[in-house]
Design goal:
Elements lengths: L2 H7 L2 E5 L3 H15 L2 E4 L3 H10 L5 E5 L7 H11 L6 E4 L11 E3 L5 H12 L4 H6 L4 E5 L13 E8 L2 E8 L7 H9 L4 E5 L3 H17 L4 H22 L3 H20 L3 H10 L4 H18 L7 H12 L7 H5 L3 H6 L4 H8 L1 H9 L7 H8 L20 H17 L7 H11 L3 H9 L6
Parallel strand pairs: 1-2, 1-3, 3-4, 4-5
Antiparallel strand pairs: 6-9, 7-8
Length: 451
């Protein structure tokens, strides 16, 4: 599927809203109810930079002003000068010169009001009925139940009664104890989500994340630590993909990362840790992230410029590299050829294409980020701008990004059930694929025995 074909067929909306929580709510609901792909920008200059590349943007939603930037006026003038017929929604007081020229919504603007107006401009039908329906119960992934033995609220399963009707049946009572065997029975029956009352969502998420953080900060066996890490990672990934970072998810992600670091530092033998990770029943997403981290840190430790802080940096990189990808199929893709041949929807294709850039952008909301870390994550698939995969190994990117590319390829190949199983065969493939001298030196480290 061609990139330009996908871009041309997608509705895309530029959103300029400086308040992170409001922006997160707008973005989630615009995407949920209108299907538009929301692209965040910080001011008029950033939006115009994007419009120069993508003049086919469907809608612009912007604050009237962002600090000293007369955002709405600047964007309106840009569109007028270039005769671009792109609707503009202004949030806040409408500048006098734009009166009657744009749709201005006085603040505070609820997401429902914004979505209704955006939907009309995007040509979305039956939007009113979609927004009116607010179910009393919301789905909670079964991942949330792996590391708790009771819940702070009643928990239900959903049974379909007809095409338009569901029945919610209580299965776990508030404060009642349950075992992991109970949860596994539901999994064996194909259950993926429980349901809880909508009003308890925040309370429930906070309860589970606090329980996981407490567990991760305590002493446990290496096997228990990796299993708990995997459960925590899936919760963080799912939450970020739906609504971005929240305080409790940020805390859980940080505990998760520090626990990964601890597992590497305290493992008596890295070989045993790798053996367990390769054979474990944990999720592919976390398995790949932790394995890439172990392999990558081993390579880094053999470099003359290695410092102890690089373990932390590489762990953050491994943790967040695929955080925006939803499926194992997406995570296994390693080149533009594989991406073009994969049977993905338009949205799935674009998610893989942009996942390095998106992960770096996501990290701007993370307290422990840095421009250094964001740069490496942007380049972790070999592209300086974080879009797509490098067709030829790129020696212009950061050395740590190069190490990640090699470690990630090695791990993906090892995890491929149809790929070579012998390390020597894998390294032969890698020597042929990554021909530049700097990559050859990185690969050569993997010839050493990991103990």
């Amino acid at each position: 599927m061609a990139i330009l074909e996908i871009i041309n067929n997608m509705s895309q909306t530029i959103l300029i809203e400086p308040q992170e929580e409001i922006k997160r709510i707008y973005k989630l609901n615009l995407n949920t109810y209108t299907g538009t792909d929301v692209v965040e920008r910080g001011n008029s200059a950033e939006a115009i930079e994007l419009l120069n590349i993508l003049p086919t943007i469907s809608l612009i939603i912007t604050k009237s002003k962002v600090e000293d930037d007369r955002t709405a006026v600047n964007l309106f003038q840009y569109l007028k000068d270039r005769d671009l017929d792109i609707p503009l929604i202004v949030l806040g007081d409408c500048p006098p010169e734009l009166s009657g020229e744009v749709l201005a919504l006085k603040e505070p603007v609820s997401w429902e009001i914004l979505v209704k107006h955006a939907g009309k401009l995007l040509g979305v039908s039956e939007l009113e009925e979609k927004i009116k329906v607010k179910p009393n119960y919301i789905p909670i992934s079964i991942n949330y139940f792996f590391d708790i033995d009771h819940t702070p609220c009643d928990v239900y399963i959903r049974i379909k009664k007809s095409n338009q009707e569901y029945q919610y049946v209580k299965r776990l009572h508030e404060q009642d104890s349950f075992t992991q065997e109970d949860i596994q029975k539901y999994i064996s029956q194909g259950l993926k989500d429980f349901y809880i009352p909508r009003d308890y969502q925040q309370y429930f998420v906070t309860f589970v994340t606090n329980s996981l953080i407490s567990k991760l900060e305590n002493e446990m066996s290496i096997i228990d630590r990796i299993n708990t890490n995997s459960h925590a990672y899936e919760i963080v990934k799912e939450h970020i993909q739906k609504v971005g970072f929240s305080p409790e998810i940020t805390d859980l992600a940080e505990s998760n990362i520090q626990s990964m670091i601890k597992s590497i530092q305290e493992a008596p033998k890295l070989a045993n840790l790798l053996k367990f990770l390769f054979s474990s029943k944990i999720s592919y997403a976390y398995q790949k992230a932790h394995l890439a981290c172990v392999i990558g840190n081993f390579i880094l430790s053999k470099q003359s410029w290695y410092e102890t802080r690089h373990l932390s940096i590489f762990t953050y990189l491994s943790f967040f590299s695929d955080i925006t990808l939803k499926s194992t199929t997406q995570m296994k893709i390693n080149s533009m050829e594989e991406l073009d041949n994969a049977k993905l929807t338009k949205d799935e294709y674009m998610a893989v294409l942009n996942h390095a850039k998106d992960a770096a952008e996501l990290l701007k909301d993370y307290p422990n980020t840095s421009e250094y870390l964001e740069l490496i994550i942007t380049q972790h698939q070999g592209m300086v701008n974080g879009i797509g995969f490098a067709e030829e190994p790129n020696e212009e990117i950061h050395p740590i990004a190069r190490v990640f590319i090699v470690a990630d390829f090695f791990v993906k190949t090892m995890l491929d059930s149809e790929g070579p199983r012998n390390k020597k065969d894998i390294l032969t493939i890698m020597y042929m694929k990554f021909t530049p001298n700097s990559y050859q030196k990185i690969i050569k480290v993997l010839e050493q025995k990991i103990e």
